[in-house]
Amino acid sequence: MGPPVASRGHTATPTVGKAMLNKYARAFFTRVLTPFAAFLIRRGVSPDTVTLIGTAGVVAGALVFYPRGEFFWGTVVITLFVFSDLVDGNMARQLGRSSRWGAFLDSTLDRVADGAVFGGFALWYAGSGDDNVLCAVSIFCLASGQVVSYTKARGESIGLPVAVNGLVERAERLVISLVAAGLAGLHAFGVPGIQYLLPIALWAVAVGSLVTLIQRVVTVRRESAEAEAAEQHAQGSEAAQ
């Protein structure tokens, strides 16, 4: 799990805003994390191991703290392990290992981490949070996030570019949710009214995910129709020759 950076062996096509964030943020964190990544390499640690440990930390932070309503500390733990996504990519570059397996592992474990975060919210609202509506919204965020990712992967697997930047993609879902959760957790330290940020964020992510899902489905339908029309035209041209 992590910020909007390219996975190992995977080429991303970010928007202008994300490209700017990648350019400056990644340059800074590359300088900071390169010595640590080099240290891990010298100790014989593989990028895949870092990916697995990072995901385990995110899952633990989400499923241990969030169901108990400890949103501040849960977010702190998750944020610390989120940086593993930058470390493993840095290690892969230093080792010259840009592999399909690394990209696959990153992408798969990202889904696991996402599920843990929103699952933690759902468990809180199903239990001590005592709000069935927000529990349902959290589950919708979890499910829609998985489906949004699937639509792009499935579209690309059948040869379509799925050339659309959705309203709320994975980076936005996580940033909105984690920032809101961390701030909402300050309510336990006496900050009044701030606990309402998390419900607002969950509703925003739910609506944004639905819009993004519709955008991707519409895009795949259009691209599919265009591809089929192009194939029929090519076949007609061959038959005429």
From TrEMBL:
<feature type="binding site">
    <location>
        <position position="106"/>
    </location>
    <ligand>
        <name>Mg(2+) 1</name>
    </ligand>
</feature>
<feature type="binding site">
    <location>
        <position position="88"/>
    </location>
    <ligand>
        <name>Mg(2+) 1</name>
    </ligand>
</feature>
<feature type="binding site">
    <location>
        <position position="85"/>
    </location>
    <ligand>
        <name>Mg(2+) 1</name>
    </ligand>
</feature>
<keyword id="KW-0479">Metal-binding</keyword>
<keyword id="KW-0594">Phospholipid biosynthesis</keyword>
<comment type="subunit">
    <text>Homodimer.</text>
</comment>
<keyword id="KW-0808">Transferase</keyword>
<dbReference type="InterPro" id="IPR048254">
    <property type="entry name" value="CDP_ALCOHOL_P_TRANSF_CS"/>
</dbReference>
<keyword id="KW-1208">Phospholipid metabolism</keyword>
<protein>
    <recommendedName>
        <fullName>Phosphatidylinositol phosphate synthase</fullName>
        <ecNumber>2.7.8.-</ecNumber>
    </recommendedName>
</protein>
<feature type="binding site">
    <location>
        <position position="93"/>
    </location>
    <ligand>
        <name>a CDP-1,2-diacyl-sn-glycerol</name>
    </ligand>
</feature>
<keyword id="KW-0460">Magnesium</keyword>
<comment type="similarity">
    <text>Belongs to the CDP-alcohol phosphatidyltransferase class-I family.</text>
</comment>
<keyword id="KW-0472">Membrane</keyword>
<feature type="binding site">
    <location>
        <position position="106"/>
    </location>
    <ligand>
        <name>Mg(2+) 2</name>
    </ligand>
</feature>
<feature type="transmembrane region" description="Helical">
    <location>
        <begin position="196"/>
        <end position="214"/>
    </location>
</feature>
<keyword id="KW-1003">Cell membrane</keyword>
<keyword id="KW-0443">Lipid metabolism</keyword>
<dbReference type="InterPro" id="IPR043130">
    <property type="entry name" value="CDP-OH_PTrfase_TM_dom"/>
</dbReference>
<dbReference type="InterPro" id="IPR000462">
    <property type="entry name" value="CDP-OH_P_trans"/>
</dbReference>
<feature type="active site" description="Proton acceptor">
    <location>
        <position position="110"/>
    </location>
</feature>
<keyword id="KW-0812">Transmembrane</keyword>
<comment type="pathway">
    <text>Phospholipid metabolism; phosphatidylinositol phosphate biosynthesis.</text>
</comment>
<comment type="pathway">
    <text>Lipid metabolism.</text>
</comment>
<dbReference type="Pfam" id="PF01066">
    <property type="entry name" value="CDP-OH_P_transf"/>
</dbReference>
<feature type="binding site">
    <location>
        <begin position="48"/>
        <end position="51"/>
    </location>
    <ligand>
        <name>a CDP-1,2-diacyl-sn-glycerol</name>
    </ligand>
</feature>
<feature type="binding site">
    <location>
        <position position="110"/>
    </location>
    <ligand>
        <name>Mg(2+) 2</name>
    </ligand>
</feature>
<dbReference type="InterPro" id="IPR044268">
    <property type="entry name" value="PIP_synthase_PgsA1"/>
</dbReference>
<feature type="binding site">
    <location>
        <position position="89"/>
    </location>
    <ligand>
        <name>a CDP-1,2-diacyl-sn-glycerol</name>
    </ligand>
</feature>
<feature type="binding site">
    <location>
        <position position="99"/>
    </location>
    <ligand>
        <name>a CDP-1,2-diacyl-sn-glycerol</name>
    </ligand>
</feature>
<feature type="binding site">
    <location>
        <position position="85"/>
    </location>
    <ligand>
        <name>Mg(2+) 2</name>
    </ligand>
</feature>
<keyword id="KW-1133">Transmembrane helix</keyword>
<comment type="function">
    <text>Catalyzes the conjugation of the 1'-hydroxyl group of D-myo-inositol-3-phosphate (also named L-myo-inositol-1-phosphate) with a lipid tail of cytidine diphosphate diacylglycerol (CDP-DAG), forming phosphatidylinositol phosphate (PIP) and CMP. PIP is a precursor of phosphatidylinositol (PI) which is an essential lipid required for cell wall formation.</text>
</comment>
<keyword id="KW-0444">Lipid biosynthesis</keyword>
